[in-house]
Design a protein that fits this description.
67% of the residues lie in helices and 1% in strands. By secondary structure, the protein is mainly α. It comes from Pirellula staleyi (strain ATCC 27377 / DSM 6068 / ICPB 4128) (Pirella staleyi). InterPro entries: O-mannosyl-transferase_TMTC, TPR-like_helical_dom_sf, TPR_rpt.
Length: 324
């Protein structure tokens, strides 16, 4: 799926805490919450034992790196943050910004190394631990990810993101009951947590508890104003409804999602599949045609279009042969 919530795809890392503070550890693929972390004597990131002019230069470079990140210019951001680190190696913000930029550019090994340094320089700030743990999770280092989650919880047991990270690790290890327990702890501290709520629904689906999954997704949908439910939530609702063989209801959810994200070929393809299951090949054909109009190279839609055409030919031939 290309449609996303604040987080991204539940399989990709959430934005990393960085330069001006810490980003919401899981708000994906989706709204950045920035908090300024300062001490009475100023930002703790600037503990650098360097001349004032070098500290000032590092700060200016970090600001320029932040601006480049916001513009999506990750190569420039990497350059600015790397220069800031050279000016002041103990600047936590610069280390974190460099880690994020490297990560976005696909250099994960170096990104992890710099985030490890950022954790050390932060004095083992639990928020930084969560960000490092998410990196470990993304590269498949599950024991390390779990360790960071546990250490963050030990430091601050009310951090919903730490419990969520713990749940994500258990979910990947197929330890579903433990994952649910951690996710529910996260929700106890943060009731509206879309990524976690969808993860809970996914676990229920894996456990073949489809009604619980549907209830979870619908409770999340109810937390949004009418007509503003994110496409990803509607999509996930449709998947559960399809599992329950409620194809018409699933089609309605996908129609609502496609209205909010009209350029998504994937949504229209899924709508076509559900309409076929509902016994409505005419609507299914229209939906898959719309999907191909948005993305002619969408292979699944191409296959569906060919399948619908073959089915229509069979019906037409059968009808012709039965005429007197």
């Amino acid at each position: 799926m290309r449609v996303t919530l604040a987080r991204t795809d539940w399989t990709t890392i959430a934005p990393l805490a960085c330069q001006a503070g810490s980003w919401c550890a899981r708000c994906g693929l989706l709204v950045t919450l920035i908090a300024v972390i300062c001490c009475s004597s100023g930002c703790r990131a600037l503990r650098c034992r360097q001349p004032d002019e070098q500290i000032s230069a590092a700060r200016e470079l970090s600001i320029r790196g932040t601006d480049a990140q916001r513009r999506g210019q990750w190569d420039r951001a990497e350059q600015f943050y790397a220069s800031a680190v050279q000016q002041c190696p103990a600047d936590e913000r610069a280390r974190c910004g460099l880690a994020e930029s490297l990560w976005q550019r696909g250099n994960r090994e170096q990104a992890v190394a710099h985030m490890e340094q950022a954790v050390r320089l932060s004095g083992s700030d639990p928020l930084r631990r969560i960000q490092l743990g998410q990196m470990y999770l993304s590269v498949g280092q599950l024991p390390r990810a779990l360790e960071q989650a546990d250490l963050a919880i030990e430091a601050n047991g009310s951090l919903a993101a730490a419990w969520a990270l713990r749940g994500d690790v258990f979910k990947q290890e197929a330890r579903y009951n433990e994952a649910l327990a951690s996710y529910h702890r996260a929700l106890a501290h943060q009731a509206h947590y879309p990524d976690v709520q969808l993860a809970v629904a996914d676990v229920y689906q894996k456990q073949d508890r489809q009604l619980r999954a549907l209830s979870t997704v619908q409770q999340l949908a109810d937390q949004y104003p009418p007509g503003q439910t994110p496409p990803l939530v509607l999509y996930r609702e449709a998947l559960v409804l399809k599992d329950l063989k409620r194809y018409t209801d699933a089609a309605n959810s996908l129609l609502a999602a496609s209205r909010q994200d009209p350029q998504s070929a994937e949504l229209l393809f899924e709508l076509s599949r559900v309409q076929m299951l509902a016994g409505d090949p005419a609507s299914a054909r229209l939906s898959v045609q719309a999907a191909l109009a948005r993305d002619p190279s969408h292979t699944a839609s191409q296959a569906m279009f060919a399948e619908l055409g073959t089915a229509a030919d069979r019906v037409s031939t059968a009808s012709y042969r039965t005429q007197p």
